[in-house]
Amino acid sequence: MIAGLAAYLWWGLVPVYFKAVAAVSPLEVLAHRIVWALVLLAVWLGLRGQLAGLAAAAPGGVARLGILASTALIAVNWLGFIWAVVTDRVLEASLGYFINPLVNVLLGMLILGERLRRLQWISVGLAAAGVILLAATRTEGLPWLALLLAFSFAFYGLLRKVSPVDAGSGLLAEVTLLAPAALGLLAWRAVRGDLAFGGDMKTSLLLVAAGPVTAVPLLLFVAAARRLPYGTIGFLQYVAPSLQFVLAVAVFGEPFGVPQAAAFGLIWFALLLFSIDMRRALGARVTDQPRARAARSTCSR
Predict the structure, then answer these.
(1) What SS3 class is residue 164?
(2) What is the pTM of this model?
(3) How far apart are CA 75 and CA 112, in angstroms?
């Protein structure tokens, strides 16, 4: 429980880190995130003797196309989040991660053929109404950044769900594939003379910290996911966008008026119904298991 909570608290507070490097180009921050996460994950998995799991994601492996697609999606998601923070749109980023669980349900129906229960349909409808209301009251129109974060992470999660590669090795494969482009970008900026890394000690150390900022919460999450019930993980996922919401409004001073309150209210109500439905489904599953065992025992006599 502690590891899972720590992971989501970390993700919830991570805008503070990206605000600290806001003077650096988002593309350079992304490049450092990739490079230093690669170093940290390679060392971690190497010490644990888990680098062999990377073979399943190698170019000849069955997971090749999935890893290539998930690599593109996670790069888009990371850059989108960095962009949201440095352009003072943390509130919109939190919206994206609030609606992400509902997008997951929608993708499960459209792609995996899963059937939605009544409360799930209502939740998806309310969330869509919230997004439409926000779009109608914004001069910018649709909250495209929130939708980008929600859908890119939902598709990423879907690909990782069906991948034979474990989470740690999968992320290592993704950052390994991204590393040449990241190193090329850093070299190009160095030649142009506008590379932030190396300019001063504080900025350089902050950019190196992009590695643990990326990798540590994932490792905590993986450790928690192995021990905690799926339902607990489902409820913990609201910790991160809730913290991001508080930071956006109370710390970063982003505008939050009546239209935003109404839109977020619809989405929060949708999440409440979604959580109630998830709890009922988990309760029914737990109740049905002893009955199924009893039925099998009766039939075997």
Answers:
(1) coil
(2) 0.83
(3) 24
The enclosing H or E element of 25 equals none
- Residue 24 DSSP one-character state: S
Q: Which region among 77-86, 97-106, 148-157 has the lowest average model confidence (pLDDT)? A: 97-106
Amino acid letter for position 296: R
Query: What region does 253 belong to: left with phi over 0, alpha with psi -120 to 50, or beta?
Result: left
**3-state helix, strand and coil shares in percent for the chain, rounded to the nearest 5:** 80, 0, 20
Position 229 scores a pLDDT of 63
Residue 69, phi-psi category: left (phi > 0), alpha (psi -120 to 50), beta (remainder): alpha
Rounded to whole angstroms, the Cα distance separating 197 from 185 reads 12
**Across all residues in the chain, what is the average pLDDT?**
84
- Cα three-residue angle 56-58-61, rounded to 5 degrees: 55
DSSP one-letter string for 180-214: HHHHHHHHHHHHHT---TTS-HHHHHHHHTHHHHH
Residues above pLDDT 70, as percent of the chain: 85
User: Rounded to whole angstroms, what are the CA distances from 22 to 161, 254, 255?
Assistant: 33, 16, 19
- Boundaries of every domain in the chain: 2-283
